[in-house]
Amino acid sequence: MTGGQGTDQLARALAPYLFVDSAPRLVLLAVSGGPDSTALMYAAASGAPERSLAVATVDHALRPDSTREAENVGQLARRLGLRHAILTWDTRPRGGIQAGARAARYRLLASHAAEIGASLVLTAHTADDQAETVLMRLMAGSGPAGLAGMARERVLGAGIRLARPFLDIPKAELVDYCRANALSFVHDPSNADDRFTRARLRTLMPSLAAEGLTRERLMRLADRLARDEAALSRGARDLLEAARRPAVPSAFALDGAALLAASEAITLRALDRAIESVQPDPRRATPRRLERLERLVFDGLLPALSQGTRLRRTLRGTLVEVAPAGLVTIALAPPRRSARNDDTDSRAAAPSDLLGKAGGGAYIGEACPE
Hints:
Layout: H1 3-18, E1 19-20, E2 23-24, E3 27-30, H2 35-47, E4 53-59, H3 66-79, E5 83-88, H4 97-116, E6 120-122, H5 127-139, H6 144-147, E7 153-157, E8 160-163, H7 171-180, H8 197-210, H9 215-243, E9 244-245, E10 251-255, H10 256-261, H11 264-277, H12 290-307, E11 311-315, E12 318-322, E13 327-332
Parallel strand pairs: 3-4, 3-6, 4-5, 6-8
Antiparallel strand pairs: 1-2, 7-8, 9-10, 10-13, 11-12, 12-13
Helix pairs in contact: 1-2, 2-7, 5-8, 5-9, 9-11, 11-12
Binding site for ATP: 32-37
EC number: 6.3.4.19
Family: Belongs to the tRNA(Ile)-lysidine synthase family.
């Protein structure tokens, strides 16, 4: 890819996000210093109006060179006439360092965007990132919401959206763009560290492509499932609206007959939304596990509604009850005496060990975004 060709392609991808009705707006660029985000910063600076861009680098402080790399991003940003901020992650989770770093990254970006008045945050996720995400979620047992991959746009915070303009562009083209424009960039060693699932899968991608599971086919799968999931989600919202009945504050009541009459895929999503709605802080809720939700709906709720029997189960810190008359109520569960994680059925088998994480198959959707 030549520099000129690359400039045109990146400019087209960025244009919808840099202008609203031909008027500029403040956009925050998330730039780590790698080739993808370096290309994002340079291409945006080349096409955006003056003073409409800001840059932020999240320093996770996980490697000795991370602070120096963040400072280097700042130097390039200033040469381009852009203001730059380093956002430091100063807390550490007990486990799941990559998941913790990702959550912290988005939290810091949202906070900084709100502070400077930016309504949009752009990241430089590529087609390769999308393909790897779909493959990881496929191996983790995700449903359609997870296999839809990373959303092209999503809510990041109050009045702030996140967008990924380069999601259709292969990483190699962004590397070529940097080289064609003499832009230096860093190589994150964790990208080749086989302790991490994504790095291990990255080494397998050429072999999978040779068997027909190409990046393009994984992206096509994501697009198809995103369309289907959007339709199913609309159906779930409509079902909740039609089935909702009066309930005490902080609780949800649903007409069981309406849930029973709907398709199973719609009922599954409707109950998931109802459970999320009673969470005081969904960000702190127990992770959404598709297999646990399926056990609750298919092995518990629907049979109880069909047979007119009582049901009382817990899931993700909520209590789901079915009365013999068919009314379904969802409310926060009382505190448990045991420290054991809640489940829909204590007799059910524990989630399988996937990818060496012993975490089970995640239901990855709106509550667990990339």
